[in-house]
Amino acid sequence: METDAALSILTALAHPTRLATFRLLVQHEPDGLSTGQLVEASGLSQSTFSTHLAVLVKAGLVVPEKRGRQQIQRVSIDALRGLMLFLAKDCCEGRAELCEPLLAELACC
Amino acid sequence: METDAALSILTALAHPTRLATFRLLVQHEPDGLSTGQLVEASGLSQSTFSTHLAVLVKAGLVVPEKRGRQQIQRVSIDALRGLMLFLAKDCCEGRAELCEPLLAELACC
DNA sequence: ATAACCCATCGGATAATTCCGATGTATTTC
DNA sequence: GAAATACATCGGAATTATCCGATGGGTTAT
């Protein structure tokens, strides 16, 4: 993952509404949720939420799929993996002693 | 990790200068770098960089240590682990099939 | 003491983000 | 075809972020 892509993802997640939306969609994998359901969950106006969603989609964290006049939204686990790999990369390369505690806790599952 | 703490970390990393600073410090673990060295690496004015550094410190990603009239900066691997755990948590809990690809690639080291 | 050095904070200008209601574009239903 | 539904996009107002030079506080060297 390039630095610009990582920055897009970090920026997308660095907002309460967008982070909550992302987490909600993770919990609803793999079915996803419609944009309308996400609007309702956000408590914001439809137009405001639409711009937030666009940020998530542009960053590649959320992938929309047309279904009639609705739009089903799903998260991209690939994008999340890319970000985590990017963040861990610098300590993984050549300094496994730093990376070890990272992985130890992630092995929870 | 609480949502607010995760948001602070994400916001801190969602800026080119701050992300580059964080990565540079990871590469210089465990010795760290002085604030002056970081200022030079950033290419920004001293005052501007100081505010960026303060964001990283407030988020807990960077820990300063006084050394004479200098200030040595080091990253907190704990904070990074906390963020990664937070991001992975929602898919780890009860849906190991989502989490598996995350861990598979992180096992690079 | 005085000067030099390192870094944080202040004041202020510019740019970006965030929010909303209103309007536009498809799609479905009647 | 007309009305209704789902969502995106357009203006515009308010807030926040970003940047800088200048100043201040504390530490070391002369």
Automatic annotation (TrEMBL), chains A, B:
MF GO annotations: DNA binding; DNA-binding transcription factor activity
HTH arsR-type domain: residues covered: 1-95
Annotated coiled-coil segments of the chain: none
InterPro entries: ArsR-like_HTH, HTH_ArsR_DNA-bd_dom, Metal_resp_trans_reg, WH-like_DNA-bd_sf, WH_DNA-bd_sf
A Pfam entry, by short name: HTH_20
Gene3D superfamilies in alphabetical order: Winged helix-like DNA-binding domain superfamily/Winged helix DNA-binding domain
Keyword line: DNA-binding, Transcription, Transcription regulation
Name recorded for this polypeptide: ArsR family transcriptional regulator
